[in-house]
Structure formats: structure tokens, C-alpha cells
Amino acid sequence: QVYLRESGGGSVQAGGSLRLSCKASGLNFRLYPINWYRQTPGNEREFVARISSEGSTNYTDSVKGRFTISRDNVYRTAYLQMNSLKPEDTAIYYCNVVLSRNFWGQGTQVSVSS
Fold it and tell me: In this structure, how many other beta carbons lie within 10 angstroms of the beta carbon of residue 43?
């Protein structure tokens, strides 16, 4: 069974930084792209960042230059380094992998105050 567990969320002031982690099990981690999404109340999950199995990355426009996605295949963990945080980054952040279907973690809350 595929299992994803996010950690690293918290409360910070605008301009601060957080690093989220996504620990995976139950899959050959190095073979799969990993995605980060976020969701605010009443809204659909929004794509944030993606890292391919080869390490290429892409980001939604609103986080380009501030967020960095990375992965460590030895530890089966993906990361999202978030710098220069803004109040509009406040959300629950989820990691995601697509195999036969979408798999999601339980999410980690990020709150940014002005």
C-alpha cells in the first residue's frame, strides 16, 4: 500500500520560511514524479510544484522564485522549501503521487500571518 506522510508545516510571519517533507513508502519512489498541492477552505486543491523522477521541476507562477521542490531517493522523501512566504500561501499542503490512481498524504497546515 502506498503511503505518504507530510510534515514541517507551522505558523510563520510574512517573509519567513518553512520546509515541508513528504515521506513515502510502498512504492519504488525513485521512479515516480512527486507533486505538491495546496488547498484553502471552500476551494479545490491547487497545484504548487512537481519534480520528475529525473529531477526536473516546474512550479505554479505564484510560487516561482520563492519555493523549491527537491527529492532524496535514498530516504524516499520529497521536500518543498518555501521562502519569502506570503499570507496568501496559507493553506493545507499535500503531497501526491500518481500510480494506478492518485495517492495523497494527510496534509500539513501552513499559516502565514501579515
Answer: 9
Q: Which amino acid is at 95?
A: C
* Tens digits of residue pLDDT in 13-61: 999 999 999 999 999 999 999 999 999 999 999 999 999 999 999 999 9
CA distances from 52 to 5, 35, 36, 48, 56 (A): 19, 9, 12, 14, 5
Strands 77-82, 67-72: parallel, antiparallel or unpaired by DSSP?
Answer: antiparallel
DSSP 53: T
Whether the Cβ atoms of residue 93 and residue 38 lie closer than 8 Å to each other: yes
Distance CA 27, CA 49 (A): 20
3-state secondary structure of 75: coil
**β-bridge pairing 91-98 and 108-113:** antiparallel
